[in-house]
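pinned: reference chain
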Amino acid sequence: MPIRIVSGENLPNVPWEPRPADCRDVVWRSQRNPVIPRHASPTADSIYNSAVVPFRGGFAGVFRCDDRARNMTLRVGKSQNGFDFQIDDHRLEFECAIPEIAQFLEGYDPRVVPLDGRYYVIWCNNYHGYTIGLGWTEDFERFVQLENVFLPFNRNGVLFPRKVGGEYLMLSRPSDAGHTPFGDIFVSHSPDLVYWGKHRHVMGPKRESGLVNWQMTKVGAGPYPIETSEGWLLFYHGVLTTCNGFTYSMGAALLDLEKPWVVRYRTRPYLLSPDTLYEGVGNTQNVLFPCAALADPATGRIAVYYGAADTSTALAFCQVDELIDYVRANSDV
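pinned: its structure tokens
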């Protein structure tokens, strides 16, 4: 049976560039990178680690925009082709019926997930420490904030795009008050998007061999998982601590469809690591941080948006069958 994407709408206009003739990698970069430069909004210092979904024949998303006071804000952006975005110059504002959580200080590193006819926004929310915020929109105009998902400290919250076993699932990475020199991915269950429990360990850094490797310090979930015939395809970031600080790279894993805390395959080598100027030089050097993916079931094409050097947003491409074959052939669970 051919490997295929089994859920989601067909995207005939998914952003795409063919693999360059001189490229042998299974994932390749856009020649237009960075597709969203740091000053795409005149009030932004940087635009990165952001989320994009299909919307009304084009694309929309929620973007991390650090403003020129270097405050971390969330903003709305829209595009017809997935390359050229119009980013709002003002901060996204949520309606919230819960006064205790309505006035949060900061929001960053969002994900957006289409689910149950809404677009759910998940972000890192500063509420007496960094935790996972949750809200929704139906039109990218009005946004409603729900209860925070977890206690501080937690980051990289990623909601699954459908219920599994009749429950909502969310990936996250418990952390600390700083830059977190550790980190494992867990999955949590909820009947109603308010109360979360039945936490299960998914995967952690690769330290068993004692050898230096690209994902030995911490790992975190990236875009929401893509449902394929072979399992949930999860792009994730892995971190290596070097003498010059953290280096963030991208890998992929295949999770079991019914028990997504079971990792069936996981890349031993990275898929992409910072080796271009825009990934290596910026507000934070050597960061490649995947946050969103667009997948076209009809063609198997996948476009991955990632933050580059905590400064701009870049784009990479792959084919689902080639990628899953690669993950299987180069796996170290």
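why pinned: Residues 194 and 231 are 27 Å apart (CA to CA). The chain has one domain: 28-329.
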